[in-house]
Specification:
The chain is an alpha+beta fold. Helices cover 35% and strands 16% of the residues. The protein contains 4 helices and 4 strands. The chain has a two-stranded antiparallel ribbon. The protein has a two-stranded parallel sheet with strand order 3-4. The N and C termini lie far apart (54 Å).
């Protein structure tokens, strides 16, 4: 029905492919992809856009980091590793091991 289409078109999901324009005009894409499925969808979106980007990445150490960070990092022009504000957060050093080249 048209009500359903209208409702879906106005739906907002903060933190999921959320585009924010900074005061200086740069665009930031916020996505809280917290599992391999979410990362796969984010990677598809980034591939569709085809734009150069910097990846700012933090995650909890109990997440599937080996299946999350490498696919995103491979698409990024620059990767910045940081920690989340949680005692469960992986440190940048822990994250970096998933970027090591054999």
């Amino acid at each position: 029905s048209s009500d359903l289409v209208d409702g879906v078109s106005r739906c907002r999901w903060p933190g999921r492919l959320e585009s924010v324009i900074l005061p200086d005009g740069r665009r930031v894409l916020l996505d809280a992809a917290h599992n391999p499925g979410g990362v796969a969808r984010l990677a598809e979106f980034l591939d569709e856009r085809g734009e150069h980007f910097t990846l700012l990445f933090a995650a909890l150490r109990d997440k599937e980091l080996a299946r999350m960070l490498p696919p995103l990092a491979a698409r990024a022009e620059t990767v910045v590793l940081t920690a989340a504000a949680s005692p469960r957060s992986a440190t940048p050093e822990e994250l970096a091991r998933w970027l090591a080249v054999d």
